[in-house]
Amino acid sequence: MPEGHSVHRIARQFARNFVGRPVSASSPQGRFAEGAAVLDGREMLQAKAVGKQMFLEFEGDMWLRVHLGLYGAWDFSGEILVDPTIASANGRMGQTNQRGTDIDQPIFDEAGENSLSSIGAPRRARVHVRMSEQTSGLGDEGDQWPPPVVGQVRVRLLTEITCADLRGPTACALQTPDEMLATIAKLGPDPLVGDPAEGEERFVTVVRRKATPIALLLMDQAVVSGIGNVYRAEMLYRARLNPHTPGRDVPEEIVRELWRDWVRLLAVGVDTGQMMTMDDLSDDEYRAAMASRDDRHWVYHRAGLPCRVCGTEIALEDIGARKLYWCPSCQR
């Protein structure tokens, strides 16, 4: 499932390419035809993400709420003004990686996770994108515009030069401002929304009063927004915390460190487009990690392999209907 970093990247692409422009809306698949008809021709006013949910505001007090779920993704095509704050992983526009090292060549994840053209459920980009700092045209001469519809597109949003296609979302619905605020009110704190210090206090207060295992609390979007299966496993390992520990039994300083680690990891994820959770890598190790998930995580997706620190076999179990990876020795 796309985690919080992906949704923030999507919102920033919309803010850069759609906000302030009239948008044509359609539903090639037909499942959102009525909603698309309501939005068609309206100016987009705002794009924001809270955890795994994204909200697009249109003139006339209308909001489009999208939850990508397990399989959803937005595909961008046409001329894209790349937000420089999310371009660094690909070495575009003279950006640097999180280590501050110049990257001469783009680094592409094997599954396309850090793609700027298809954001959401990891996949290789399926559509042509021309990315630039200034819009200068629609692409090479002879390019079809609008681009042909590929697959089951729930919603297509289109400006004169940029197209965004939504496929496979769990939720796609119009909301009034009150409905949008009610949806957000049910979500836990997101480090990129509001005051992180206030978010930390909310998170600590909720976790410290719950008997629920910390592994389940981190996946509860009412407790903290944006954390999914990958970040959950990696954060617990980085804290050397047993995933079965009840929230109320986790020392307060460790709960606070979990939140602060989430602040750090989310920022890296938004910047690079990848869930990088390993620190202190050499330049070569960093490049390998950017290119392959196998070199990017401590425990996630490493069941049966030796722990990178102690050599104990990484365990895999189901908890809350999701797979949990952890080290029984390091996380006693």
Unreliable runs, pLDDT <50, ≥5 residues? 88-108, 124-142
Number of strands: 12
Q: What is the mean predicted local confidence, pLDDT?
A: 86
Q: What sequence of helices (H) and strands (E) makes up the elements?
A: HEHEEEEEEEEEHHHHHHEE
| Helical run tally | 8
Main β sheet profile: 6 strands, mixed
CATH-defined architecture of the largest domain: Alpha-Beta Barrel
Task: Compute the CA-based radius of gyration.
Answer: 20 Å
Compute the separation of the termini in Å.
28 Å
Shape: globular
* DSSP helix fraction: 25-40%
What is this structure's SSE topology?
Elements (H helix, E strand, L loop, with lengths): L3 H14 L6 E3 L6 H7 L4 E7 L2 E6 L3 E6 L5 E9 L36 E3 L8 E4 L20 E6 L3 E6 L3 E5 L1 H9 L10 H12 L6 H4 L11 H10 L13 H21 L10 H9 L23 E5 L2 E5 L6
Parallel strand pairs: 5-7
Antiparallel strand pairs: 1-8, 2-3, 3-4, 4-10, 5-6, 5-9, 8-9, 11-12
